[in-house]
Amino acid sequence: MGELREIIKIDEDACNGCGLCVPNCPEGALQIIDDKARLVSDLFCDGLGACIGHCPEGAITIEKREAEPYDEKKVMDNVVTYGENTIKAHLAHLKGHGAVDYYKQAVEYLEENGIDISIEEKASGCPPQGCPGSAMRDFREDVPAPEEQPTDTVERQSQLSHWPVQLMLVPVNAPYFNGAEVVIAADCVPFALPDFHEKFLKGKILLIGCPKLDDAAFYKNKLTEIFSNNNIRSVTVVHMEVPCCSGLLKVTQAALDESGKVIPYASVEIGIKGDVKS
User: Fold this and answer.
1) Are residues 146 and 115 both part of a single domain?
2) How many CB atoms lie within 10 A of CB 222?
3) How far is CA 129 from CA 99, 105, 276, in A?
4) Full residue range of the structural domain in which residue 189 is found
5) What's the mean pLDDT when you consider all of the chain?
């Protein structure tokens, strides 16, 4: 018996069969069949729309209709067959959309089946009930164009276009990654460099982290997922001159290699007094 709920709708006339939506549905509800994206099971679609931002043709929308009730436990039966990266992407998807009940069910499933979730729990920094501070927000449209910015630097507005920015918290499949120029900055950089927003952040998507204090292996795996699952235009690593900060370069380079993607890459070194070294 169906129930009235939100679920995705695919405009077949607009869909060109590119397949970008498929890897961005960790639940496995989408497949390319006869050169078109198809919703293969109402049961697997949670209606949260992770796939929407990855459709270049705008062929995917959300509608409210009678559909088979979504079943998180059955979805997890499907998700776990694809391995750890897909499990983490699914959990991040639920958490980023504030789907607390589904998230709790997914965690319970993993615990019941003896699947280690320590990486995801460490990444979240929050209990399974969810954390409002890590909820994904995309406010690129709120950032004024350069010509609209006041000339007085004291009055200038932030160039930050999304939230969260911490690499431990950012959703792997966030829509703002599609076609993005990504800046990966060491935590200390914005404090040392007074015009960080103007030099490096304007029009970019920011990720921050500290390879010395955080889990470098987790950083590498998370970046590999982001590079693999999204159409990233370029990557710039901005790091401090201190030796420990070079770890950010190493994990980024390793992630680029493992992703199998060819993405333009650059690095910038910042001195402890705020000067650009290279």
Assistant:
1) no
2) 25
3) 9, 11, 42
4) 137-270
5) 82
